[in-house]
Design a protein that fits this description.
The complex is a heterodimer of chains A (202) and B (712).
Chain A: E1 6-14, H1 20-29, E2 42-51, E3 54-63, H2 70-74, E4 82-88, H3 92-96, H4 98-108, E5 114-120, H5 131-140, E6 144-147, H6 156-173
Parallel strand pairs in A: 1-3, 1-4, 4-5, 5-6
Antiparallel strand pairs in A: 2-3
Chain B: H1 3-9, H2 15-123, H3 127-138, H4 142-150, H5 156-180, H6 184-196, H7 200-222, H8 234-259, H9 266-291, H10 298-301, H11 305-337, H12 342-358, H13 360-391, H14 402-419, H15 423-450, H16 471-479, H17 481-516, H18 522-568, H19 578-599, H20 602-624, H21 631-651, H22 656-669, H23 677-680, H24 689-696, H25 704-709
Helix pairs in contact in B: 2-3, 2-4, 2-5, 3-5, 3-6, 5-6, 6-7, 7-8, 7-9, 8-9, 8-11, 9-12, 9-13, 11-12, 11-13, 13-14, 13-15, 14-15, 14-17, 15-17, 15-18, 17-18, 18-20, 19-21, 20-22, 21-22
The chains are: A alpha/beta (202), B mainly alpha (712).
GO cellular component, one term (chain B): Golgi membrane
Main location (chain B): Golgi
Domain COG4 transport protein middle alpha-helical bundle (chain B): 160-450
Chain lengths: 202, 712
């Protein structure tokens, strides 16, 4: 038996090439694989982190962004405890697709799932989406917001750690009901995860 | 002994002493004489020995001289041997130089012959001879050629290379001619010559192109589907034919490579052949999408789950066939690369993986899997919904096959996904199955079980012994058949929820075992296990529904349990019907148990009975504290409690402890004297002393002071 107290499923979604796999590998393996190929179907990695002295196992599902894998990736939404929606700050189309992704999340995911919007690739010079636009979008749709760079390892650790902290808080507030799959109530909560200047809660 | 010692030892002043000393001296003299004669007798022996020694010495001197001579001889021989081996070495060197010279001379002669021979062979269309010449040239020691050049001869390689190139051009032309004419024997014959002229890869490419042309024709024939509307797997058959044609071509190429020992080059053939296979499959796929209306949303086209099934089977079959083809490519490449070294083998495997990953066939397979999963999800949801509709509580229906139906569907769907050969597909279907079980089936059961009918499992009420049987009530109940049906259905659903939990767990194990074979590597296996683990939450959902029903059953008997508890603690005994009175509760419980056992699982019955007995005992104990008893009344309570405990001991072992406590309380009530209380609490007191005293205080005939004085 592995030694951990909580197990959370975190699913990353978003257009192809926004850096989902790089975020996962940066977090789980501490490396940035240059020339990372497109993910086929779904990959999954595990990392155990410690929050308040308790072991939390994060099961991270890294999905393929391409359209033809949609029916595979959709099946993973339902059991997710947290969904990370990723876009590329230097690529407007990846941001424009966010409403489509949200529709998909609405349709397949649990409506109380923890949702985080992540603008990746802050290391790039050619930014197309200003930070406040992303922030506004996240706020409008009741999501947390964070900008990251998998290449520079910026905010990656923090992203996953804050998810672990938040999920654990929820789990402690109300033990995750086992039968209806719903998460603890998060709508009533007003505390933001970590630094409130960065993570917004609508 | 010296004289001084003698003088010390013996007293010489006396005659006796002198005599003794003299005797001693005489004895010593005799000993000396004997010793002297002994020495004299050995003198001759010593002389003899001395003589022998001097003779031996003379002989040794002779031997020394001989040895010196021998040593000199050995030295000389050694020097001689050294000289000989140096000579041999020189000879050896000379011989090898001669051999090399000879080889070079041969090479040079051959070189001349070769270039002339190749020309002649080309002219005579005898390419075998020509290729043999080139092969000979390629096998030559480069030193020979260099040596020839060093002597100032014109570079013989130029002529040879020219000749070889001419031969190569001829061979290519001839090969192309033969392939145009589909002259198989010539193709094979010519292909074998390429490795000889050091152009194995070129030959492999030519053969691959030839095979591709041939396979393309086969693929074109394979793609023809006559009966597009047929429900049979016509598209799967067509795709199977396409990949089989490709497989045959690869096998044919591999055999040709084996004969001409061109190893590790199968990936070249695959690379050239693959686009045609991709195009062929894509063509069939496009027809399939149009014919089976795969692009349209199944919900909108309102296809029935029944009509979707053949399509699903076909899609899974197609995917598995493509997967098998990929496996075939990997296996054949590995077998082919077994002949080359490890580094090259690794390179070959990487090449084939790259071809597989990048080819359009892989994308087609992914598209097919996508369609399959969309349709499978639709089938699953529709079928489960249908099963739910059939199982919805209806008037007069007393059985339900919801769980059977749902798990039959789940199993079928998982098996089909496994048959597609894709781990991702199996994982996605497992996820969907978990969702359907948890959110549809278990949730529906939970919804139904939340609203129990009146008294799903009835416990007979305590009856006044004097009162007549409740004939009117029984008659009314017998008329209410609807209620009976509702009860039966409720219990059926409850059993289903329990079975659902077990089934979900079994399904997870089954799925892992069935899909485990598909996984390539630990990561894929982990993925499968994790997705199958989702069924545990479905199991928990069923269990929660079952617990809900169990709670409802326990809740429903609560009032009757209360009534029985009051009857148990009744202080006014029915003296005439003593036996019946004491047995009434065990009888009612026995009847309840029998009915329950017929309807729900033994484990549920046990849980229910334990809860019921605990409830009765607790309530009865509380009721006792509210009543007042005389000895007679106390004895009645004691009798009833004892009978209850006796029944519980046989039927509900788990409740024995709880009943023992009640029996002790009742025993206290039935005492003749308060002083006997200590005995009543034997062997193990289950009641705290103050509590026991409170119970004793309920006896009207016991004195308070006496009770207070008691040491318990």
């Amino acid at each position: 038996m592995e030694d951990y107290k909580f197990l959370f499923k975190v699913v990353l979604v978003g257009n192809a090439g926004v850096g989902k796999t790089c975020l996962v590998r940066r977090f789980t393996q501490g490396l940035f694989p240059p020339g990372q190929g497109a993910t086929i179907g779904v990959d999954f990695m595990i990392k155990t982190v410690e929050v308040d002295g308790e072991k939390v196992k994060l099961q991270i599902w890294d999905t393929a962004g391409q359209e033809r894998f949609r029916s595979i990736t959709q099946s993973y939404y339902r059991s997710a405890h947290a969904l990370i929606l990723v876009y590329d700050i230097s690529c407007q189309p990846t941001f424009d697709c966010l409403p489509d992704w949200l529709r998909e999340i609405e349709e397949y995911a649990n409506n109380k799932v923890l949702r985080i919007l992540v603008g990746n690739k802050t290391d790039r010079e050619d930014r197309e989406i200003p930070r406040h636009i992303g922030e506004d979008f996240a706020q409008r749709h009741g999501m947390y917001f964070l900008e990251t760079s998998a290449k520079e390892a910026e905010n990656v650790e923090r992203l996953f750690m804050e998810i672990a902290v938040e999920l654990m808080e929820q789990a402690k507030c109300k033990e995750l009901p086992k039968y209806d799959g719903s998460l603890g109530p998060i709508n009533g909560k007003t505390t933001s995860v970590g630094d409130s200047s960065c993570c917004l809660r609508s | 002994m010296s004289l001084s010692l003698l003088l010390e030892k013996y007293d010489v002043s006396t005659d006796e002493g002198l005599q003794k000393a003299l005797n001693e001296i005489e004895k010593e003299e005799t000993e000396v004489d004997e010793a002297l004669s002994g020495v004299l007798s050995r003198a001759s022996l010593l002389e003899g020995r001395l003589r022998t020694a001097s003779q031996a010495y003379t002989k040794l001197t002779e031997v020394k001289t001989d040895a010196q001579v021998a040593a000199d001889m050995v030295d000389r021989t050694a020097n001689l041997a050294r000289d000989v081996s140096a000579k041999v070495r020189q000879l050896d060197l000379a011989r090898s130089r001669v051999a090399e010279c000879q080889r070079r001379v041969h090479d040079l002669i051959d070189l001349q012959l070769c270039s002339a021979g190749v020309e002649a062979a080309i002219k005579a269309h005898d390419y075998e001879i020509g290729a043999a010449h080139v092969s000979r040239f390629l096998g030559m020691d480069p030193g020979s050629v260099a040596a020839a050049r060093a002597r100032g001869a014109p570079d013989p390689r130029d002529a040879m290379t020219r000749a070889a190139n001419t031969l190569r051009e001829h061979l290519i032309r001839k090969f192309e001619e033969a392939s145009r004419k589909e002259d198989e024997p010539s193709v094979d014959r010519l292909f074998r010559l390429f490795p000889q002229i050091g152009r194995a890869e070129e030959g492999v490419e030519l053969l691959a192109k030839y095979l591709t042309t041939q396979t393309e024709a086969a693929i074109r024939r394979a793609c023809i589907i006559t009966d597009v509307g047929s429900e049979a797997c016509v598209f799967a058959d067509a795709i199977t034919r396409v990949v089989e044609a490709a497989g045959a071509a690869i096998e044919r190429a591999r055999n040709a490579h084996l004969v001409s020992q061109a190893y590790g080059l199968l990936t070249t053939t695959i690379r050239i052949l693959q686009p045609s296979v991709c195009a062929g499959v894509r063509r069939v796929y496009n027809e399939l999408v149009a014919a089976r209306r795969l692009e349209s949303d199944p919900q909108r086209t309102a296809m029935s789950p029944l009509s979707v099934e053949p399509v699903l089977t076909e899609l899974a079959l197609i995917h598995s066939r493509i997967w098998l083809y990929f496996m075939f490519l990997r296996r054949k490449t590995e077998v082919d690369a077994n002949q080359v070294n490890e580094t090259e083998k690794k390179l070959c495997m990487e090449k084939v993986e790259k071809i597989i990953a990048d080819c359009d066939l892989m994308r087609t397979a992914q598209d097919i899997l996508g369609h399959y999963l969309t349709l499978e999800r639709y089938f699953l949801e529709e079928s489960v919904n249908k099963a739910l509709k059939m199982a919805t509580p209806q008037v007069g229906v007393t059985t339900s096959s919801l769980v059977d139906d749902v798990f039959f569907i789940a199993r079928k769907v998982i098996r089909r996904a496994v048959s597609s050969g894709s781990v991702d597909g199996a994982c996605a279907v497992l996820n969907d199955v978990c969702g359907a079980l948890e959110q549809h089936a278990a949730r529906a059961l939970r919804r139904w079980l939340r609203a129990p009918p009146l008294e799903p499992l009835a416990l007979a009420p305590p009856r006044d012994p004097g009162a007549p049987p409740d004939a009117a009530g029984d008659f009314a109940r017998s008329l209410n058949r609807d209620l009976d049906a509702q009860r039966l259905l409720y219990l059926a659903h409850m059993n289903e929820a329990e079975a659902g939990a077990e089934w979900a767990e079994r399904l997870a194990t089954e799925a892992c075992a069935a899909a485990g074979g598909l996984a390539r590597g630990q990561a894929e296996r982990d993925k499968l296990v994790s997705c199958a683990g989702g069924l545990a939450s479905a199991a928990a959902a069923f269990r929660a529904a079952h617990d809900l029903a169990l709670g409802a059953l326990a809740q429903a008997v609560q009032p009757r349990l209360g009534a029985w508890a009051h009857r148990l603690a009744d202080p006014h005994p029915h003296t005439e019907e003593m036996e019946d009175d004491a047995d009434a509760l065990p009888q009612a419980l026995e009847q309840f148990t029998e009915t329950a056992r017929a309807q729900i699982s033994a484990r549920s019955v046990d849980t229910l009975l334990l809860a019921a007995l605990t409830e009765i005992a607790t309530r009865a104990e509380a009721a006792i504290l509210h009543n007042k008893y005389d000895r007679e009344g106390g004895l009645g309570v004691e009798r009833r409690a004892r009978r209850l405990a006796g029944w519980a001991g046989g039927s509900v072992p788990a409740a024995r402890e709880r009943c023992a406590r009640l029996t002790q309380a009742a025993a206290l009530l039935a005492l003749e004297l308060p002083a006997h209380a200590r005995d009543a609490l034997l062997p193990t007191p289950r009641l705290a002393a103050p509590h026991a005293k409170d119970i004793l205080a309920r006896r009207t005939d016991f004195k308070m002071e006496e009770i207070k004085r008691l040491k318990l």
